[in-house]
Design goal:
The complex is a heterodimer of chains A (about 250) and B (about 325).
Chain A: H1 2-16, H2 19-22, E1 28-31, E2 35-37, E3 44-47, E4 62-65, E5 71-72, E6 74-78, E7 84-89, E8 99-103, E9 117-125, E10 131-133, E11 139-141, E12 168-169, E13 179-186, E14 191-197, E15 203-206, E16 209-210, E17 212-215, E18 218-223, E19 231-237, E20 243-250
Chain B: H1 2-28, E1 34-38, E2 52-56, E3 60-63, E4 68-74, E5 77-80, E6 83-89, E7 92-97, E8 106-111, E9 116-118, E10 121-123, E11 127-132, E12 136-137, H2 138-144, H3 146-155, E13 161-164, E14 170-178, E15 193-201, E16 207-214, E17 217-226, E18 236-244, E19 249-257, E20 263-272, E21 279-285, E22 294-296, H4 297-302, H5 304-313, E23 320-323
Antiparallel strand pairs in B: 1-2, 2-7, 3-9, 4-5, 4-8, 6-7, 8-11, 9-10, 12-23, 13-22, 13-23, 14-15, 14-21, 15-18, 16-17, 16-19, 17-18, 19-20
Helix pairs in contact in B: 2-3
The chains are: A mainly beta (about 250), B alpha+beta (about 325).
Chain lengths: ~250, ~325
Amino acid sequence: MKKLAILFMMVGILIVFPGVLQGQASLKELTLSERTIQDPMKSWTITFTQPINKGTLKKQNFLIKDDKKRQVKAKLSLSKDEKKVTITPESPYKKGVTYYLYIKGNVKSGSNAFLNEHTVLPFKIGAVPKESKNSSGKTTTNDKQPASSSGKTASSGSDSKSSSNASTSTSSKTPGKNLVKVQTKKHSHFDEISVQVSDYVTKVKAGSNEFEYKGNNLFVLYQPGLKSGEKITVKGYSMSGKVLETKEVVIP
Amino acid sequence: MKKLKGIGVAFILLLSILMPALNQSVSAAAAPRIDHTSPAANEQNVPIDTDIRIYFNSDIRGISSQYIKLFEKSNGTYYDFPIKTVKKDGEALHILPEKSLGFNKEYMVQFNGPAVDLLNGTYNQHLSYTFQTNYIDFYELMVVNEGRLMNMLDTYAPRQIKAFAPKRYINEISVIHKKTGSLKGDQASFNGITNIDINTKSEDVVNVHVDIMKDGKSLQKGYASKVTGTKASKNQFTFDIGFSNIPDFYDVRVTVLNNAQQTIDSKIIKFAAEDGKAITSFKESYKYKTAGNGYTFHELLSKESLFADLLAESMMQDIKVQVEDR
């Protein structure tokens, strides 16, 4: 009878103070841009600006899931200064599957300040960077593209509203194919060249003609006066103007 | 008998005097009338830059422009469409509106009094005729339904078919993006911050909307606010907007709206934060050769670079096609 009364009291508290349960579940989720990795056993290191509360180093706070929401078995380790958490998979990642590294907002700093959001990092195994010719005809490797960002967690001590972010750091350098797919289509008065690009390509040109960006990594150029069998050189450029990949396309 | 002869001679003499005068008065009495109009009454797909001309059967001596009206139909009602000037050019009356005609509209030309004084008299009839400025999608003609273009070329010569590039309003888009994290190793980090500036023409522009897109979905969006004071330039507006915690790779879709909240220009740019840099800046400026202009198909076919510019500078779906009757 006494147990029943306690149960009713607890339920009552939850009804009157619903915020009790709200806690970290109501946090925003920050999804970082997808990374491409080459190492199927890649471990991820999350660096914080302050030592974390050891009690929050749990598998439910640092975890990896596949695209079917199945949790990947992984080991956690904490650095000596308690600022870095490393998560290592116990089995290799599969090709073609997108994985998600979760850092839950339940993680606390030594001064008990929570992160102010859940962080998700999608990643998958990608192709080894291919060599491509740049505009000057030299051969370059696309080793500049993103991957690592060395973000750290910040927390402002006793302030419960402390702003704190987690971001991942990794040594892997991504890219792979930058001009993913180049297609041509003939119309009666012009040719249509469409190029599907990677995340890193922000401009596409064929000679001095710039492609129109249509969104979703798709660039299109409508070009009159092209002859059947003519070769067109398509170049994909990074934000800084560097040629990431060059491809030749033959007009049908 | 003599008397009858005398009357006969007098009658013939009278006729010989009067006949030439009668003949003259017949020709002078040819009533002032309209020979034809351009565009013709009830004509469709009239180009928006068309000249409105009314041809009479005699030279024009004077115009009473207060009796000449032009109306634009909107939601079933005709509203006055201001006329800048009315000119005479031989037998033709030339009506010049204050601003360009709009696409997909119906216009009515009206005379409601002694509007035109001709050599053969005053044209004092009520006149009212309409024409429409409907258009055909360039994209439909060129890509979706090329058969329609062939049909059109059966009816009209390339010089009669006109393609109009849309007006453009966005001059420049610049993005400053700070990744989530610290600027230096020993600094505390803070959220990612992104600032987007949009510089536009001042004409017609009322609002600018910005969407941050990823994989075709809108992650964050909002109306940019107009920068006022010292940063504002003449004949230009600068709008700005800030976002936090957006990913490092995304699309920015900028939409410019007029006072009727209609989209008058839009642009999508792609952003990719640079590796190894906490802050990435990106600026893209736009200059157009063809924006707001109309070109006949003959011009486009005979000048390949012009055709290429038109295709490069405007979305094909935004190019409108109209035809001119001869």
